[in-house]
Specification:
It contains 5 helices and no strands. The chain is an all-alpha fold. The chain is elongated. It comes from Scophthalmus maximus. The chain crosses the membrane at residues 53-73, 79-104. Keywords: Membrane, Receptor, Transmembrane, Transmembrane helix.
């Protein structure tokens, strides 16, 4: 009788373990999907911000370039054109960021770093562990020392 009960409990226990594993897997998949959607939305916001900033900076650049060119011609001082050079680099960077291939080049470089320079990504003192986090939490908690006694 006890053997049959034990066998039935073992079968139920295995089914429960499988169910818990399945639920854990589903929860992790949902978490990964949610985090990826959040990352995509943040990246879309950054690209949109770049495009919006480009409109304002492009207007500033055009007005400045025309004004400096007119001033250089009117006063016959070519040195007035000098600020256009650094402004054009900033404009080109913003244009590449908003509409160009900057994001693809950055992704390629990031993949290269992950593949061949993994040691650069190590955190100081290594990856946090549960014990290190608990130790820090206890050190900052005034109630921690009281509760552990």
């Amino acid at each position: 009788m006890g053997f049959l009960l034990s066998k039935s409990m073992d079968a139920n226990f295995k089914k429960q373990q499988e169910f818990m594993l399945h639920n854990a897997r589903l929860q992790m998949e949902r978490q990964i999907l949610m985090q990826n959607q959040m990352r995509e939305r943040q990246l879309a916001m950054q690209i949109a911000w770049s495009r919006e900033f480009l409109k304002y900076f492009g207007t500033f650049f055009a007005v400045t370039a025309v004004g400096l060119a007119a001033g250089a011609v009117k006063k016959r001082k070519p040195a007035l054109l000098a600020p256009i050079v650094p402004l054009s680099f900033i404009f080109a960077y913003q244009m590449d960021s908003a509409y160009g291939t900057l994001i693809y080049r950055m992704r390629g470089e990031a993949q290269s770093i992950l593949a061949s320079e993994q040691d650069r990504l190590d955190l100081p003192h290594g990856t946090p562990t549960f014990d290190s986090i608990e130790k820090a939490r206890r050190a900052k908690s005034h109630l921690g020392s009281f509760l552990e006694k």
